[in-house]
Design a protein that fits this description.
308 residues; alpha+beta; four-stranded antiparallel beta sheet; 10 strands; 13% strand; tRNA processing
């Protein structure tokens, strides 16, 4: 392949990403993530994954995309904005903004399917796989490597112009492309996220104990919530946005333009009383195709009861 076609293909891929509604697209060379390997190993050894046992599976595949896609050459990283134009009623139990609309897995998978088809149609015989938080891919590491932002002290990917309220997805392709470069860290001496975390889950800059995060407790933990956390959830009943809400870079967040991420109006207007009295039938209607279905009706009721 000539340099010229690498350039042409990369340009086409970035333009196509924009057409499909992604706010950013970066490309990096597929290979073993050397710097991440010891970090991931230490994080797992310290049990910072809690009961998320799936994080221990496929250790090698998490670090090397060539084990996921035969002859992988490039990782195309993509960001899709989910910052809402409206917020919940202030006198309410809180839901993480990413869960306001339809489940992002389905929304993004459809876009990625179209993306891959378009690449194959326009470039030719290209093999690849699409990933959106559903396989052992270190998406934040790849996005940072391809220059889409830096990993902040709260372990989220942060971008200067748009903050951090976006989903990350990838296409891993057996196609040589032009590669982007990582950007510098712009957290500086700021500790807003560390200071604001209600459960002190950010142990030190860039080190998050996943098993202490409110998102872990309210979504991943299937058993009873620990009593020593009572009163520390700051009204969050599904997920938590605190470390993002206080991040100075998120003052640049702009509302998304994806209709499927628009919330059911009830979700925004419900009061604490409405949530406390929610029936299974209402739950099914309000959260049709929503990520909140992951915690199920009983899980949400458990979380609400814990906040009362």
């Amino acid at each position: 392949m000539s340099i010229n076609s690498k350039e042409t293909y990369s340009k086409f891929i970035k333009e196509e990403a924009k057409r499909l509604g992604f706010i950013s697209c970066g490309i990096s060379k597929a290979g073993f993530l050397e710097q991440e390997a010891p970090r991931l190993e230490k994080w797992l050894n310290n049990n910072h994954n809690g009961q998320m046992a799936y994080m221990e599976n496929h250790f090698d595949k998490r670090l090397d995309p060539t084990l996921l896609v035969d002859d992988a050459k490039s990782v195309v990283s993509l960001l899709l904005n989910y910052f809402p134009s409206e917020s919940q009623n202030e006198e309410s139990f809180k839901i993480s903004k990413y869960a306001y609309g339809q489940d992002y897995h389905f929304v993004i998978k459809e876009k990625l399917k179209e993306f891959l088809h378009s690449i194959q149609e326009n470039i030719g015989d290209v093999s690849g796989r699409a990933f959106v938080d559903s396989a052992p891919v270190l998406d934040k590491a790849w996005a940072a490597k391809s220059g889409l932002g830096w990993i902040g002290k709260n372990s989220n990917l942060i971008t200067q112009r748009v903050g951090s309220f976006y989903f990350i997805a990838e296409l891993i392709l057996d196609l040589d492309l032009e590669y982007d470069h990582a950007v510098t860290d712009h957290c500086g001496s700021c500790t807003a996220c560390i200071d604001a975390c209600p459960t002190q889950a950010i142990l030190a800059p860039y080190i998050v104990d996943g098993s202490k995060c409110i998102s872990y407790y309210t979504i991943e933990l299937k058993e009873n919530l620990p009593n020593d956390m009572k009163g520390k959830f700051d009204e969050w009943m599904f997920g938590c946005d605190t470390c993002q809400d206080v991040c100075p870079w998120n003052r640049f967040s702009k509302p998304h333009s994806e209709p499927l991420f628009n919330p059911n109006p009830d979700l925004l207007s419900f009061s604490k009383k409405d949530w406390t009295e929610i029936t299974e039938e209402t739950f099914r209607v309000v959260f049709k195709n929503s990520p909140i279905k992951r915690t199920k009706f009983d899980g949400l009721k458990r979380n609400i009861k814990f906040l009362e």
